[in-house]
């Protein structure tokens, strides 16, 4: 059972507005537009379709009328085939993790959100029905009220990146006031979110980044920003750290991050090998193999360096999302948006990201 109050039904005008929505007799949306991924490949494989079915809500789910969704690196990697061992049998997929929009309907166990309320949030990395659609479905704990000070485009850029950083720093490393935190790759969305979360927690933050990001990172409260293109970061970074979040995750940054940790510190990389190993060997062999690789590294570094080693992934965290909302509302956490596209130009947006024509965050707006 779902609860719905329909304030208006939006009909397209032929110029890019909502079109070909399906409604049942109760006025509940049953179909809408969405961007489908029918096969893996380049941006050209993305298909913008009408009349894509909207599933019935489960008791803990929320139907969100999307207004803006951001493009994450995970989206372009999945489109190209990353995670195919998991996703290929489930094609076609709907990509997209972040969303900002309005509650259109709620399942009968949802208590914290109401129809018409503006919300933002992010889906789990393994979600098959993503957010590149007029109407997305998320669990109640994957959503929070949208910060009133932000536009939908600005809000949609935040949740997935910030929750990824939150899980690493808060859930895994358990950073607290006075800790020294190093973010390797602070110029990207996850890295910049991590810097702001660590600063808000009262930590002393250092980072590596490209020269174009230094002023923005220092303005956000980092104490040191090293331009890795002109400096030897390992020499420039002074002292040792309680936590290192490595958003780059290549052998050189892993070696550097681990060498700069204090005893008992936490090294966390976004480039865990679980998906790549399972893609290569299949789920039955790949998952146990990936678990064995991680365990071996954890034991190795615990005994050789006295540190904790982790592969880090985003997961829904209601407490984290509400804290992210509070910090965003207070102007203490933002992910700058470099460019927006209408969702009908999703191929162009993905192509721009693939060619690295737009270094920062790209958002798809849904009118």
Automatic annotation (TrEMBL):
This is Enoyl reductase (ER) domain-containing protein. Transmembrane segments: none annotated. InterPro entries: ADH-like_N, ER, GroES-like_sf, Lipid_raft_assoc_Zn_ADH, NAD(P)-bd_dom_sf. It comes from the Eukaryota. GO terms for molecular function: oxidoreductase activity. Residues 41-364 form the Enoyl reductase (ER) domain. It comes from Solanum bulbocastanum (Wild potato). Coiled coil: none annotated.
């Amino acid at each position: 059972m779902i609860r719905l109050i329909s304030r208006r039904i939006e009909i397209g005008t032929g110029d890019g507005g909502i079109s070909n929505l399906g409604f049942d007799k109760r006025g509940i949306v049953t179909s809408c537009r969405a961007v489908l991924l029918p096969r893996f490949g380049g941006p050209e494989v993305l298909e913008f379709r009408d009349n894509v079915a909207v599933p019935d809500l489960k008791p803990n789910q929320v139907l969100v009328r999307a207004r803006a969704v951001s493009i994450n690196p995970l989206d372009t990697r999945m489109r190209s085939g990353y995670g195919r061992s998991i996703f290929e049998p489930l094609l076609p997929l709907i990509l997209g993790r972040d969303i900002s929009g309005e509650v259109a309907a709620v399942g009968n166990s949802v208590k914290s959100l109401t129809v018409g309320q503006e919300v933002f949030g992010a889906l789990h990395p393994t979600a098959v029905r993503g957010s590149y659609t007029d109407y997305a479905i998320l669990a109640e704990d994957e959503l929070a009220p949208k910060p009133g000070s932000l536009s939908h485009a600005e809000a949609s850029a935040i949740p997935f990146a910030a929750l990824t950083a939150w899980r690493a720093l808060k859930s895994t490393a358990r950073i607290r006031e006075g800790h020294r935190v190093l973010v390797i790759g602070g110029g990207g969305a996850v890295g910049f979110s991590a810097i702001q979360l660590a600063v808000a927690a009262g930590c002393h933050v250092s980072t590596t980044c490209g020269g174009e990001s230094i002023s923005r990172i220092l303005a956000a409260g980092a104490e040191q920003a090293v331009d890795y293109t002109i400096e030897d970061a390992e020499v420039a970074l002074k002292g040792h750290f309680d936590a290192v979040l490595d958003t780059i995750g290549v052998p050189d940054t892993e070696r550097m991050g681990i060498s700069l940790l204090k005893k008992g510190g936490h090294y966390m990389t976004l480039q865990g090998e679980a998906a790549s190993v399972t893609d290569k060997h299949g789920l039955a062999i790949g998952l146990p193999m990936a678990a064995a690789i991680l365990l071996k590294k954890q034991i190795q570094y615990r005994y050789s360096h006295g540190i904790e080693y982790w592969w880090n992934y985003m997961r829904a965290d209601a407490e984290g999302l509400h804290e992210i909302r509070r910090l965003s509302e207070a102007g203490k956490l933002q992910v700058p948006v470099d460019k927006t596209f209408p969702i009908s130009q999703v191929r162009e947006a993905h192509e721009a990201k693939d060619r690295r024509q737009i270094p920062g965050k790209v958002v798809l707006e849904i009118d």
